[in-house]
Amino acid sequence: MTTTHHMTRAEWLAEGEQLFGKDPMAWRFACPACGHVATVKDWKDAGAPEGAVAFSCVGRWLPDAREALGGKGKGPCNYAGGGLFDLNPVRVEFEGTVCGVFAFAPAAQGGAS
Known about the structure:
By secondary structure, the protein is an alpha+beta fold. The chain has one domain (about 5-105). It contains two helices and six strands; from the N terminus they run βαββαβββ. The protein has helices at about 10-20, 40-45; strands at about 5-10, 30, 35-40, 90-95, 95-100, 105. The strands form two sheets. Strands 1-4-5 form a three-stranded mixed beta sheet. A hairpin with a 6-residue loop joins strand 2 and strand 3. The longest helix has 12 residues, at about 10-20.
């Protein structure tokens, strides 16, 4: 079972900046289904819509993504945060709406770029 962490938008932005610096394009998130680490730039380069960042795995916009649940091999996968299985471990309040998002990847972990 996934442990859920709740935070405000301001707290979430402050954590991202503390971990990765002021440029959000360099912020890294780990897919809760496959563990693949991607930067915001990776989602943008893949052609994903802005709302997909840290919500659905970047693999959804890449060829040959593995299946999220039960797929073999390394990520990225085709996990969708809004699907039947909500694995997103962080809940952030954005303007009165709470949204589930991926956790930040550890700052020392290698990125997908």
